[in-house]
Write a structure and sequence with these properties.
The complex is a heterodimer. By secondary structure, chain A is of the alpha/beta class. Chain A is about 40% helix and about 25% strand. In chain A, a hairpin with a 2-residue loop joins β4 and β5 (about 65-70). Chain A is globular and about 50 Å long. The relative contact order of chain A is 0.17. The two termini of chain B are about 55 Å apart. Classes of the chains: A alpha/beta, B alpha/beta. The interface of A and B includes residues 84 and 102 of A.
Chain lengths: ~240, ~375
């Protein structure tokens, strides 16, 4: 039980002669909010695709929720939740239909779906919207719903790929409160973002540059190390190679 | 004139869109080429290699001469020599003979007595175009032979003609099975192609791929829901054929419905495969249209007889699912034959479905690896 939620060991992915992810190593503890940062093209997406079992590594290894991503991708997929920057929900289905779909895919029983789905709707204040098409509900609510749906099967780890893209600051803040609450409940949160203020909220962050992990630590430690006032400053310095 | 640079930038942008979407571009560029090539080649109504069964109850030198007259044209190939029509019947049902040349038992005597010698020409007209063309060729051969007989002082030949399976040569009987195939393919493959490519485009497919669902489950899951719809489509098409076009239903309607359903599943699988390879909804839609419409109308035997296509095209028709379905549909509807004659075509459709689905699943795996 003491094994970290995610362990990457010299995890590598090459596309032809291009190395997108170059032997990255890190560990994420259980219940941690881990910010996975990097400029566009730094290799973030490729790394996440390997950690979620969507892409086979070309070298190194990674264990997610105790399962090897290369040899046991299926067990990995069962143990994780995933929410992407693009909407994870079907806009032409109602709120309840989406919940039923995801519950079903992750093997929940009808009773579990009813019970957890009902609680979910209640906590998000979406009960009156249950029969509304997802396409018709406001963006902020949609995002929270997508997050909750990704947690419906109570995964050990949830991957959030730029979950707050295009959302107003107040909704983002509320969203992060939800993330904290989730982590407090023991779920590991692995989150990518381009908002540096959000990075400050993470327990620890890593910054990827050119396929490598250029920095790893608590926001405070990284700021101290780079003599910077904000994570934003740290990020810009690393990304520019200063 | 400030709008000119903006306009130019816009046109450049549009050109970039077009040039960047290679799949759509390829389709757009190739479509006219393929269409012209196919139409040009398939739109030929001359018939080669007519398989003739000769029924000659009392063979003689005289009857042999008539037989030789057919063989000499090289357009006809004698596939059976029989003494009675009974032996030829199974050949017709199996589609192993296109035509029977039936000589009167007294053919030789009639000529000897100075009477016109009686000949019956039976043609498989389940494809009316080909049927009438074949019959015209045969009549021409008989006419030539008659002239040479007359020159030798004989009375000539009295020819009777008969069309099998479709005596009134109604081409609607020919088209409707093909039309059913066209509609079923178009609707089915478009449905799955659009639905899968939409998931790709919206990013929801990613969510499915990260879930415990396996790629084959996603593929099959895309096909299964449409089977019900396919059944409805097939029933409608058959009902229209029967009620509106008054197509005879000589065989089992249940068998035809089952075969139509099988064919629908083949088409759905084709749609999934197209979507698995397409990068956008638009490409998938075009792919489904081109991948089904063209082969279905041009290479299935629906309009243009396969027998009259050049060899390479004839070979190509074998990979067109509709080609097999049309044989099945015509067999059941017009000839009234059952699975005992159509099992091969049915197996081909089953095989195609399995291949299409497994290639689609493979394409998915390839994306993940």
């Amino acid at each position: 039980m003491s094994e970290p939620a995610i362990v990457a060991d010299r995890l590598t992915r090459r596309f032809g002669s291009f190395t997108a992810v170059d032997a990255i190593s890190f560990a994420v503890a259980r219940g941690e909010v881990f910010g996975f940062l990097g400029a566009n093209g730094a290799g973030k997406t490729t790394a996440i695709r390997m950690l979620t079992g969507l892409l086979a590594p070309s070298g190194g290894s990674a264990r997610v929720a105790g399962h090897d991503v290369a040899s046991d991708a299926e067990a990995v997929r069962r143990s994780i939740g995933y929410m992407s920057q693009r909407f994870s929900l079907y806009e032409d289905l109602t709120v309840r239909e989406n919940i039923e779909l995801y519950g079903g895919i992750y093997g929940l029983s009808d009773a579990e779906i009813r019970e957890r789905g009902g609680a979910l709707l209640e906590s998000l204040g979406l009960t009156p919207w249950a029969r509304t098409l997802v396409g018709a509900i406001p963006l902020g609510r949609k995002q929270k719903l997508a997050f909750s749906v990704a947690l419906l099967h109570r995964p050990a780890i949830v991957f959030l790929d730029e979950p707050t893209g295009g959302v107003d600051p107040i909704t983002r803040r509320q969203f992060w409160e939800t993330i904290y609450a989730t982590a407090a409940g023991g779920t590991t949160v692995f989150v990518t973002t381009h908002y540096m203020d959000e990075a400050e909220y993470c327990d620890r962050i890593s910054i990827m540059v050119d396929g490598r992990v250029a920095a790893l630590g608590t926001p405070a430690a990284l700021k101290a190390e780079h003599d910077a006032d904000s994570v934003d400053e740290v990020f810009v310095r690393l990304a520019r190679g200063q | 004139m400030t709008s000119a640079p903006a306009m130019r930038a816009f046109v450049v942008k549009e050109l970039q869109h077009i040039l960047r979407d290679r799949q759509t571009l390829t389709v757009l560029l190739l479509m006219p080429l393929v269409q012209v090539l196919l139409f040009g080649n398939a739109l030929r109504n001359d018939v080669r290699d007519v398989r003739v069964a000769v029924v000659d109850p009392v063979p003689s030198v005289t009857t042999q001469r008539l037989r030789d007259a057919f063989v000499a044209t090289r357009r006809f190939r004698v596939v059976a020599d029989a003494r009675s029509m009974d032996a030829v019947e199974p050949l017709f049902r199996r589609g192993a003979a296109d035509m029977a040349l039936v000589l009167d038992p007294a053919f030789t005597e009639q000529l000897g007595r100075g009477e016109p010698a009686k000949v019956l020409l039976v043609t498989d007209a389940s494809d009316p175009n080909t049927g009438s063309t074949m019959q015209a060729y045969a009549l021409a051969v008989l006419g030539d032979h008659e002239r040479s007989l007359r020159a030798a002082g004989a009375a000539g030949i009295a020819v009777q003609t008969r069309m099998r399976f479709n005596p009134t040569l109604e081409s609607v009987n020919l088209f409707v099975p093909g039309l059913i195939a066209l509609v079923l393919t178009l609707v089915s493959s478009l449905m799955t192609a659009i639905s899968l490519s939409r998931e790709k485009e919206r990013g929801t497919l990613e969510i499915l791929l990260v879930s415990p669902l396996r790629p084959w489950q996603i593929i099959v899951g895309k096909v299964v829901p449409y089977i019900g719809l396919g059944l409805a489509n097939a029933s409608t098409a058959l009902a229209v054929a029967w009620l509106v076009f008054r197509i005879p239903f000589r065989g089992s309607a249940l068998l035809l419905l089952a075969e139509s359903l099988l064919y629908t599943v083949t088409s759905l699988s084709l749609g999934v495969l197209i979507a698995a390879n397409a990068s956008s909804q638009r490409a998938a839609m075009l792919g489904a249209l081109v991948g089904t419409m063209l082969p279905n109308t041009l290479l299935s035997g629906m309009i243009f007889p396969i027998a009259s296509m050049p060899a390479p095209l004839r070979l190509l028709t074998n990979v067109v699912p509709a080609r097999w379905f049309i044989v099945i549909a015509r067999g059941v509807m017009l000839k009234g034959v059952g699975l005992e004659h159509l099992w091969a075509e049915t197996l081909v459709l089953c095989g195609m479905t399995i291949v299409l689905l497994s290639v689609a699943v493979r394409r998915f795996h390839a994306r993940l690896a």
